[in-house]
Amino acid sequence: MKTGTALPMKNYIQIYFLSEKSKDIIQQITLGFALMGFLVHLGLIELVHFGIINSTYTEGLLNNPIGAIYTPFSFILFYEVYLLIYYLPKSFSKYIGKQYEIITLIIIRRVFKDLSKLELTTDFFKRKNDVNFLYDLLAVLILFALIITFYSLAKPTVQAAPNTEGPDPKLTRFIKIKLLISSLLILVFLFMSIQSFTTWVSITFSRGTEITVANDDLNKIFFDNFFTILILIDVLLLLLTFTLFDKFSVVMRNSGFAISTILIKISFGTTGIVNNLLIVTALVFGVSIFYLHNRFLAMDVPIKNNEPSEPKLIYGIK
Questions:
Q1: Judging by beta carbons within 10 Å of its beta carbon (0-12, 13-18, 19+), is residue 264 exposed, middle or buried?
Q2: What's the predicted TM-score (pTM) here?
Q3: In this predicted model, what pLDDT tens digit does every residue of 109-145 receive, in sequence order?
Q4: Contact (CB, 8 A) for 80 and 27
Q5: What residue spans define the domains of the chain?
Q6: Is residue 309 classed as helix, strand or coil in its secondary structure?
Q7: Which of 62, 57, 19, 21 is closest to 179 using CA atoms?
Q8: Which of these, 225, 234, 231, lies nearest to 268 by C-alpha position?
Q9: At 308, is the secondary structure helix, strand, or coil?
Q10: How far apart are CA 45 and CA 60, in angstroms?
């Protein structure tokens, strides 16, 4: 084979997974699987209802049609994880924002699961599951507001001055590194998805026709490990910004985002109000550090000869 006739593996990944066209195709495929999964889940609920399948431990997932919403949301979460990887080399703020969207969708998915087993009784506030349902509803509202705030902070407030000196070599190198990280993360994502699905099937159908879904472990099957990887990536990006760029505000911002991701990771090992508090704290900290970062940039404008300098974009990171 002649030199140049074959593309490196990372180029194939960028073409088939990280391009705009591939994003649209994956979106359509995900939608199809979500609809199919929803119908299959409804079918399993009917099989349980007629006694064809025994349901000994389903935590509501196969006892009520509302629980069927859990399945399409799982596919939506799959697509959100893909978008997180897709935006990593393109926009760091969207990459972090997708982390926040994912954890919010996980709580929304949990709300739909809890809805299917909600009991409206006089001792509503004494039942742990029902009270946790209220905590989840409140957490979703707070997280949604924080995500809106986060993206509003990510919008550029000034116009960039024309760059007449050509592309910044440090920025170009940084983008190439992020593309390489995204390419590797796609492979890890595919491997973890297959492994997690196999594990889930093994747990679910380990007793023949008895469906034994341990819902407390559903998130841990994939997202617990995946957020561990995101922590490593955030720390790696932090080190890269520290070595490539001499900007205190950017180092502080990326440090704050890494701490935010760690708090989200820790939340997977908790339940109830502690889980919600950790997640809300993670987003509050991330949004706050982003706000302070922007305030620092607004103050960091050199004045020469009483003339305002041209505003700068920070390394092209939106």
A1: buried
A2: 0.81
A3: 888 877 766 776 666 666 777 788 889 999 999 999 9
A4: no
A5: 9-155+163-301
A6: coil
A7: 19
A8: 225
A9: strand
A10: 10
